[in-house]
Amino acid sequence: MLSVTDPDPFPPAPDQFNMAAHVLTHTERLADKTALEIIGSDPETFTYRQLAGAIRGTATGLLDNGLTPGDHLLLQLGNTPEFPITYLGAITAGIIPVPVSSQLTQPEITSIAATIKPAMTIRASGMAKGPEPVLPARKLRAFWTLPPADYAMGDPNRPAYIVYTSGTSGKPRAVVHGHRAIWARQMMWDGWYGLREDDRMLHAGAFNWTYTLGTGLMDPWSVGATALIPHKDNTADQLPRLIADHRATIFAAAPGVYRRLLRADIPALPHLRHGLSAGEKLAEDYRSDWTTKTGTPIFEAFGMSECSTFISGSPDNPAPVGTSGFPQPGRKAALIGPDGPVPRGTPGTIAVHKSDPGLMLGYLDAPSDTAARYQGDWFLTGDIGIMDESGAIAYAGRADDMMNAGGYRVSPVEVEDVLTAHPHITEAAACAVQVGTGTSIIAAFYVATNVIDEDQLDRFMAARLAGYKRPRLYIAKDTLPRGANNKLLRRVLRTEWEAAHGQA
Asked: In the predicted model, is pLDDT for residue 275 greater than 90?
């Protein structure tokens, strides 16, 4: 039997569609229900009426400031509600938001701006300078009370937003998604979350993280549930008490957050049904410890920026032990080898069919790079998996050397390019090394013509790379291992280091 699923096709989005309008479908019916609570210190609450008013008022404000449908809007916003409101306000008006990490450095922002050519930048104070014209973030709240803009309706396949990913190319790529991407997320409601209108979803991530934006905000709003987001000043050890005090029914976080929570005292959580995990592989120890301490399971999901999550376990269909779960209902997925889908039990590249409504429209202005990700009708993720006879897929690692830093995929090539820009470094290799169960950090191995002070090297990197991309470990070497074709052997460096430090 081949490693492929062939479900009934998921119904297409309506011919006239707007992503923000879909998210706010329940506004009139649930006008006075709480849509968003910012919990912990300095709490703030938005009803569905207030949320929709702020979003549509922001759309008016953006249009009044000279933006037009189809323009690219660079969003440099921090961990505040201004981020999702401005993001959806832009989409309401047909403007294409491009959210970027608040940690990016000036060279990184300059490179991104040269690619996307934004018509405007909205920037919070303290962030790297984006291109003019700039609308200061402090002015955004004044938009919330403006008259509401109409939703810009149109083809669900037209561009809605752009996100950045390191992909598999070694360079950050601008991933263009259509309005239909939000329609496809309905397959996650039962296929991963078990999401209901009466749920109170607490997401531990920051507002300006795409995992939070999708799982923690837009999906609960799309179903009419309540989203709970901790205030930015809350720490991980405070989360268990927030889950209990605010009667969260679903908790979502990255594996690293679960690791920190398990070190804290966890009170009784009578309202919690289950946890969700995504961003990187969840260690089985964390899963079992969480279940022991809380009496609730964690359901994991696998995905990527180009397609969000499409493989997961769920309350109705839990993942067998050792697997990431099943392709969600409606998802046509496969494990691909050189000649197409491989037999079950055989490793192959995890792939999703080109017909999936959640799949990206393509990389911005890069048709050849987009085409290179396909093999026939299949979009290749670059991740290796094994499908068992039940259809469950076990994650078996990357087909390349991509790294994962706290839920962000980071290209080793991007890190190496910055390292070799140092005047004393002649060769460099970056790889993720395991420093504990389920915990990896980025390590930099380098050959230099002179001894380099580590603090000086870290300052050099900090000026050129966002914090989550920077190495946490620097190791000087006489030579770097290379194969017969002179290809850098990053995995050899990782294996040797882990063996030497008791992580083999």
From this structure: yes
Is 113:131 a contact under the CB 8 Å cutoff? yes
Residues 6+ apart with CB under 8 A from 175: 162, 163, 164, 165, 167, 305, 306, 360, 363, 364
pLDDT tens sequence across 376-402:
999 999 888 999 999 999 987 777 777
Q: What angle do CA 359, 175, 400 make, to 5 degrees?
A: 85
* pLDDT computed for residue 93 by the predictor: 98
- CB neighbours of 485 closer than 8 A, spacing ≥ 6? none
Structural tokens at position 192: 């991963």
All structural domains of the chain:
403-500 (3.30.300.30)
pLDDT digits (tens, 9 = 90+) for 238-267: 999 999 999 999 999 988 889 889 988 999
Look at residue 404 in the predicted model and tell me its pLDDT.
Answer: 76
Which among 270, 209, 220, 261 has a CA at the least distance from the CA of 240?
261
3-state SS track over 110-157: HHHHHHHCCCEEEECCCCCCCCCCEEEHHHHHHHHHCCCCCCCCECCC
pTM confidence score: 0.85
How far, in whole angstroms, is CA 163 from its chain's centroid? 9
Q: Is the dihedral of CA 130, 92, 96, 79 positive or negative?
A: positive
Q: Taking a C-beta distance cutoff of 8 angstroms, is the pair 387, 3 a contact?
A: yes
328 is written with which tokens?
A: 């969600």
User: What angle do helix axes 48-64 and 82-92 make, rounded to 10 degrees?
Assistant: 60
- In angstroms, rounded to a whole number, what is the distance separating the alpha carbons of residues 482 and 488? 5
Cβ contact 353:377 at 8 Å: yes
Contact between residue 121 and residue 74 where contact means Cβ atoms under 8 Å apart: yes
Burial (Cβ within 10 Å: 0-12, 13-18, ≥19) of residue 247: middle
Beta strand 226-230 with 200-203: parallel, antiparallel or unpaired?
Answer: parallel
Token duo for residue 398:
């990357």
The per-residue b/e assignment along 117-126, b for 16 or more CB within 10 angstroms, e otherwise, is ebbbbbbbee
Pairing of strands 348-353, 374-375: unpaired
87-135 tens-digit pLDDT: 999 999 999 999 998 889 999 999 999 999 999 999 999 999 999 999 9
